[in-house]
Amino acid sequence: MASGQPHPRPPSSGRAAEVRRRFAEEARSERPDLATLCLLLGAAADGSLDEAGIDAAQMELDRLAGQLPYRPGGPHAWATAAHRVLGERFGFRGTAADYQRLDSSLLHEVLRRRRGLPILLSVVWLEVTRRAGAPVYGVALPGHFVVGFGAAEEQVLADPFDGGRVLTGADAELLVVGAAGVPLEPAMLEPADALDVVRRILNNVRAWAATRPERSDVGLWGVDLSLLMPSHPARLRYERARLLVERGEFADGAEELEEYAGLIDVVDEGAAEKVRGEARAARARLN
Length: 287
Description:
Layout: H1 13-27, H2 34-45, H3 51-65, H4 75-89, H5 107-113, H6 118-131, E1 136-141, E2 144-149, E3 156-159, E4 165-167, H7 169-180, E5 191-192, H8 194-210, H9 216-227, H10 235-246, H11 250-264, H12 269-284
Helix pairs in contact: 1-2, 2-8, 3-6, 8-9, 9-10, 10-11, 11-12
Domain Protein SirB1 N-terminal: 57-203
Pfam family, one: Transglut_core2
Region (Disordered): 1-25
């Protein structure tokens, strides 16, 4: 978070272990629940988010869903209704300053502040309109997350970061070009599933922490949750080992570096030996 903003207090070790257990269980379930995963992610960051707080956040999503009109019509009508209720009446939207705040990636805080990153505001749109019966899904555009309503042939996009403004095709093209410098392609408009959304949120959390060495604790729980996902890149193991070394946990970091070197040895002996050198350097710092 920016200077002057209080940091969430991390949970106790016991609570953190319980949160990780439940996160892994939910992520590997047959139909992972997006809101539950996002709230457990929030509990990994914020020790003040207890079970009552998680239940209250779920109830707030239910309450907001009850404010939407009953079956307003087709995809455009759903998008317009969500814009009017969530964006205009309740004031959910984002600002440039939200990118500097960790709580912009925590669903319970986004519900409280009505501010957040595009992907977390999209989670609010998804969970609220889904509860109301909308044909809604996330759309992971490069550099900017939005929501889609309706099947591909009648798809309507909305940008929750901009209060849920309904996008034209030209608007979506400009978003992608502006954020990623590439043209909009049809494959970019495919629905993102719950695990895709959570992976992207965790990527954002780890990127936030990477520029703030004093918040290596955030980077560590971000990696730990990422490693609990059903599939993840092996390089996350290296990221975790490096974080441990940066935090002064030299023995544990060295051990994980050696394990990662063993994983990659069969595909890149040179890279593996370099990692083993990092492990030796970490162990030397114990003396």
